[in-house]
Amino acid sequence: MNFTERQEEIIKVSINIIAEKGIQSLTIKNISKKIGISEPAIYRHFENKMDILLAILSYFKKSNSIVFETPNLENTNSIQQIHSIFSNHFQQFNKNHALASIIFYEDIFINDKRLSKIVNSIMQSNNIVITNIIEIGQKNKEIRDDIPIEQLTLIIMGALRLIVKKWKMENFSFDLEKEGKILWNSIKIIISKK
Fold first, then answer.
1. Helices 78-95 and 176-191, interaxial angle, to 10°?
2. pTM higher than 0.90 for the full model?
């Protein structure tokens, strides 16, 4: 989905409102105040708040697919590919704290079927990418095969989500990339074929 310049501005302001004050603070009034335009001007770009929320998820689905792309590096093994995904995530979140606030706080969208469907789709896509890399890694004897693929995916994704949530809950007070590197080194030991 392509957004106009003004729609992107509304989306980014909305994301920041959610990140700073929670979903309950996302109102047309607060958006218009933050941008400095009238409430009717917002309605010229989005029919209602639900359309803005759908646009936010669409925007993040696109951003997330960029972060979660399977690294297209011919000479890398599965471990390096997963490491690349981890590093990409932490770099993107450092650049845009609000991104972390939305992507890993999917429970804010759980009360609406349309929104939760998009969130579920994003999570499923991410799991498929990691699962495929693990499967190839097991075939190539790079990743241990004594633990089921689904469990390894859960370990990897769970660790990634938990450190980002911790970072968010601690008000971004620690170096996510540094702590992410330490976490990755531990995960690498756990998943590598011995």
1. 160
2. no
